Amino acid sequence: MPTILQIVGWRLFFYLNILKRHGMNFKGENNKMTKYHHVKDLRFTKKHLIIEIDEKEKTFNLNEISKALKNASEVEKTTYTVSPSGYGIHWPLLDEDISIDGLLGNVHKPESLPLRA
Q1: CA–CA separation, 56 vs 87, rounded Å?
Q2: Does pTM surpass 0.90?
Q3: What is the DSSP secondary structure assignment for residue 110, as one 8-state letter?
Q4: So what's the pLDDT on residue 101?
Q5: What are the helix and strand counts (H, E) for the chain?
Q6: Alpha helices in the chain (DSSP H)
Q7: Sheet holding 96-99: strands in order across?
Q8: Edge to edge, what strands does the sheet with 48-53 contain?
Q9: What is the pLDDT of residue 4?
Q10: pLDDT tens digits, residue range 60-103?
Q11: CA distance 115 to 65
């Protein structure tokens, strides 16, 4: 098999395993996605991003989380999508993504993978 196909195949296998771990599959058996956070009521003040995360209001200083959001227009700030799993927020006009865990300061350690010789 050519090297490029081995790499593409490995990446596809890797990403499909990640999706499967989060409750998604492609056989229609269990299509319920794991909900990490419940995110709603996102709004901005001049210097802050205010979000309701898991039923608690949180305030974040724009200077500390994103220069792009700090310098964005009102339209750019208010054009966003929350991922279906509640994992992050995407601002398409700014090409800016912020994870909710990152905002909350949650740190995740990579899962240990079996080593192959």
Answers
A1: 16
A2: no
A3: P
A4: 87
A5: 5, 6
A6: 3-21, 62-65, 67-70, 74-78, 100-104
A7: 81-82, 88-91, 96-99
A8: 39-44, 48-53, 56-61
A9: 42
A10: 999 999 999 999 999 999 999 988 888 899 999 999 999 888 88
A11: 36
